[in-house]
Amino acid sequence: MGGKIVSVGTTKDALRDRWLKKNRKNITEIDCGGRVVLPGFVDSHTHPVFVHPRLVDFEKRISGANYEEIAAAGGGIRSSIDGVRKASQSALTGKIVTALADFARNGTTTVEAKSGYGLDLASELKSLDAIRRAAREWPGTVVSTFLGAHVAPPEYRGRSQEYVDLICNEMMPAVAKRKLAEFVDVFCDRGAFSGEETAQIFAAAERCGLAVRAHVGQLSETRLGPLLRYHPASFDHMDYVNDADLTAVARSDTVATLVPGANYFLGLARYPEARRLIEAGVAVALATDYNPGSSPTLSMPMALSLACTHMKMSPAEAIAAATVNGAWALRLAARKGSVEAGKDADLAVFEVNDYREVPYWFGANHCTLTIMNGVPNGDLRS
Ligand SMILES: [Zn+2]
User: Under DSSP, is residue 250 helix (H, G, I), strand (E, B) or coil?
Assistant: First the structure.
């Protein structure tokens, strides 16, 4: 009703529901018998605003080239920045619309979408505006994040602090004024922004009334304690984290969002230590990190499969991480992430008999129908 779940339970119980009884004639019945119905996936970490795939990076990395060699060959993040700066806003919107349709086909009904390949005021606003326009054409839910602090753009090389000042004093106020983002994200790691710079950006976000999240510990350990006082919704990647920080995160309501697609695509032997995090009491979410450089996948079933095989999460833990914990990571748990009366009607239907088959059949998509805010998308096979 109005895109919300009215009743949950056995068919017998549901049919006794007062609202359903009254409206029986006006409802469309979808018989999902013999199939698995999950809460729609909540993909809480994606970078969908880009133009071209990074095929130079892909091929060069296979042949053993390092980051500098890839950049010299015209690849790397620089190529994505050039693409976004030159693209029209409608071209970017079109790319995101296509990606959102693909997300839905793979069972995802809520997507967090970051800017971060524009890295100047006009291009970041254009990117966030493209997210907003694409979101209007999609029945699912999009949460947008300003990631001006992805990396200092080439024209600010060696002048990182000046770029941080630009983010805090010009870009972020402009984003907040236009209500173009709910979150501010920072890539806090070796070669990107320091802990001090991240704290500075978080403080500015607080002044602008925007919530925060950060990429941490992908390449090296990031000190998390000083960042926790800004109450980040999520710390993402977390490949490297020390025990003291882990205890502090477990005590907070910050979620750890793990993105094993990036480890897979970069051919890393090491994956985030999900078991260690879970045993420390940290809430773990899973996301795709959909982006052209390190994780060109928008398949949550693939992320689940990697979590099970490489991170030793059980299929049930992986599904919870990809749904309700993803919703917590976006501060949407009151509305999203589980099938409960009163929550948004976001469901994904899979042509399998057992939920464990979703991560089991890796590289295949068995989702045939999603329902997003009550709107069906796709068809069940008869
Ligand atoms: Zn990312």
Answer: helix
